[in-house]
Amino acid sequence: MEFRILGTVGVLDDGVEIAPGGALGRAFLAMLLMRANEQVPLDTLADALWPGHPVDRAEQRLQVHASRLRTLMGDATRLVFDQSGYRLRVEPGELDSDRFEGLAAEAENALATDPSRCAALAREGLDLWRGAAYAGLDVPPLRADSQRLTGLQESLTELLYDARLTTDRPAGLVSELSDLVRRHPVRERFTAQLMTALYLSGRQAEALEAYRSTRTHLIDELGVEPGPELRDLEATILAGESMTGPATSSAPVPRMLPFRPSRLVGRDEEFARLDELFDGDAQSSLVVLTGTAGVGKTATALHWAHSAADDYPDGQLYVDLRGYGPDEPVDPGDALSGFLAALEPSSGLPADGRGARFRSLVADRRMLVILDNAHSSDQVRPLLPGNPDCAVLVTSRDSLPGLGAREGAVRIDLGVLSSDDAVGLLADMLGPRSQPDVESLRTLANQCARLPLGLRVAAELGRARPLASVADLVEELADEGDRLDVLDLPDDRTSALRPVFGASYQHLGAGAATLFRRTGLHPGHDADVFALAALCGESVRTTRRHLDELLRANLIEEREARRYRSHDLLRAYARELAESIDETATREAAQHRLLDHYLAAAKAAVDVWAPYDRDRRPDVTADESIDLPGLESEATALAWLDGDYGNLVSAAQIADRLDHYDYVRKLPVLLWRYVESTGRAAQALRLYDVTLAAARRRHDRKAEGDALRLMALANFSLGETDQCRRNYELALVIHEERGEHVAVSTVHNGLAGVHFVEFRPGEATRELELSLAASKRAGHENSLESVHVNLGLVQHQLGRLDQAEEHATRSLELAEASGDRPVIAEALVLLAALLRDKGDPVGSLAALERAQVFVRDSGVRAKVADILCEMARAHRELGALEKSRRCDEEALEAATTITDHELMARARNGLGLVQRQLGNPLDAARHHRAALDLAREHSMLFDEAQSLTFLGDALSDAGRVEDGVEAWRAADDLYRKVDVEIPEAERVRSRLEQGAPPLPGATQG
């Protein structure tokens, strides 16, 4: 199949025209071809087909054009719709403009060495044109691309005559060049070629007349004089000097750029930055493109260089400096010899002064110099032109800070691809079989660290196995330990990952190499310098020096201030090196030091951030040789916990394997306050599982009870009430057996929470009374803040507002005295809710704003959604529906982040109540159904009953009275199971009796 845009847009299948008829159909096809193999968003297509005139049902109209095009092509897999756009698959060589640009690049490369081949390639490329690009289509994006292609067409025409002036008889070219100059009177290159042909044919006067004619056109039409090329050529002709070779100037125009890489995605920002830096205003004439091995530095540089080549009419120089690879780096003198050979091929190369000669030759030229794969600043410096009109783009795995310090180079850091770009590259390379399984593509992209080289190797692996699905590839790459083996390319060592990474590693000093291997022993995705110092057994100062070397080599990256990481494939390589180079004892000693560091740092951080129950935490003896981060303030301590929490949890697996039991049993007790306050329960369960298994192996009943109690608390936070109850009951047996009254009190308090969400306020009250009794036995009567706040919540659920206020006030007093932040926040929210229920929503908002400030300052993020839900209710009662909606939406987002299903359900119900008050009962019903699903899935009977009540109200408003009554009856059935009478039950029965809900806006929910 052949796609054509160089003329009228069309499609040929076996030589038969099958393109769509009509301007809109051709424009649709043209937009897809302009961005072949890329997703073209619906908005972009609609704007192109109907510019300035929004149309109804644009998406459906586009579907019609897409359907017609699929039918015409006879292959539905060619045109796919995904992620809100269309993508047309075009194979290599099928699009005439791609073939044209490829031939143009080949012709450029052939000019200096084989002018005859250059001319043949140029003719072949120009023969592809059948008229103006996108002929007959007046669409703005197409106009811009047409202008670009036309510029390339004219440049290739110039190249054709450069070659022919070398190979053909000049007199035979005069007529053709005269015609070109008539059609392009201000394009100076054509005039220069005509002048040369005339002069070499003995027609000096006509050559000078051609110059004068073009000069007149330039002054009249553009207000400028001819450029230096034409002026120098006029001077040569006036002086009667000899002229040989190509038609332009006294020296050849080198075009040394290698083949332009295809399928480059995700680098638009870098291309724009290069355009900005090299825009002609001399923002910079030296740019270093740096990044880790395999990230696509060379491909990015060459892709941009080809697109910018027209801006550098005096030529493009390129050299691979082999800075990282199996061979020795290129000597700068040898690189200069190659440049000089391209710039003046007829002269001998001076043994000395090659740098000076190079700078002299480019002094008056505007050239582009690509110094690829540089090893060091010293290798680059001799190759820098002295002329700021020459642009120099250096690529290197090293950041080459010396060039920035001395030469003022601007650095562009090239990172791995975004998730969407990585998926797009894989989809493009793997073809139609990848389309139905976007999630597997995303997993595959992440397994390859979104590294372009890794993605291409994985895609080639898939293409070599046409019967394998994307899911099959994902399964094959699932084991991190085998991933580098799977992504090996035995026939191409320059593209296999191990040799590519190894070339960077081999250039490291001994200390930096050790640090790189140690990063493979770290359990997390990033680490601070203190953890890395512990792994290496070095001082922080020494480790920072080695980190700087790794950063320069792009073997590690600084994600944020003082936190470092490598991508997954580099980390796997580091682990391989550690296992092959370092003894087992050395590796285990490094990990023991890391565990000691993390345990000591966790104790220090929690003690600073939450000092109020420091005496209940286990002691941790820190080795004096361990450097701990500065944790002087609550903010720095919380920031450290936020940054390293995932590492602390992941390290438990290593601690268990190395039998570091202190870490396994103490860390959960150190961290539970942080976990509860910040909503990190899901990860915490992994830690508690390790602790529970280790405690049972050692028959450590105390640690077993602690682990079960903390697991139950995490289960409760995640809405896993059945598992929560079972773990509390197991913990209770152990704590009672050991006479641990404080822990017994805590368990009864937790069981009260389970009864509360399961809609058994009577049982909840009894558990709280048992909790009070256990605390008194332990002599902790003055530390019952959590029990009092829970008693307040139960009394509030029962509609006993005064009793609830007494407990909430007492809880707040005790919590403020002890500093128990989560309970302070909870008591403030409860007091605000009571103010609202007593008819004071303004006072409620004031109390909630106080709670909000407290939560923000203290880091008790788990209460953010609770506060927002209550704010939404207060705003709703004041009639501020937009504020209420925003609060509930923010609450839903916050609750989803910490996986708090009860708050997610409350926020959903709040959004439904707003929609009902706005007169949108069906939208309201949608939110209430979502809340109902959450409540039922997680056995939250109180929220289930409320959701059913609100759903009945919304359905009744929508005229679906029978459905509404059915929902109220379901709610009433739940309320009848409650072990005491509560106000909500009576409200539902009132609805059933009256057959109607309260008016929207009435106090509820």
Keywords:
Rossmann fold, mainly alpha, Arc Repressor Mutant, subunit A, three-stranded antiparallel beta sheet, 1005 residues, 45 helices, Serine Threonine Protein Phosphatase 5, Tetratricopeptide repeat, globular
Instruction: Measure the end-to-end span.
Output: 63 Å
| Name of the CATH homologous superfamily of the domain at 268-344 and 362-413 | P-loop containing nucleotide triphosphate hydrolases
**CATH fold-type name of the domain at 268-344 and 362-413:** Rossmann fold
Runs in which pLDDT lies below 50 for 5 or more consecutive residues are: 245-250
What profile does the largest beta sheet have?
5 strands, parallel
Mean pLDDT: 87
Task: Summarize the amount of helix as a percent range.
Answer: 55-70%
Extended strand count: 14
**Separate helix tally:** 45
Rg of Cα set? 37 Å
CATH architecture of the domain at 268-344 and 362-413: 3-Layer(aba) Sandwich
Principal-axis shape = globular
How much of the polypeptide forms β-strand, as a percent range? 5-15%
As laid out across the biggest beta sheet, the strand order is 8-9-10-7-11
Quickly give the structural class: mainly alpha
The CATH class of the domain at 268-344 and 362-413: Alpha Beta
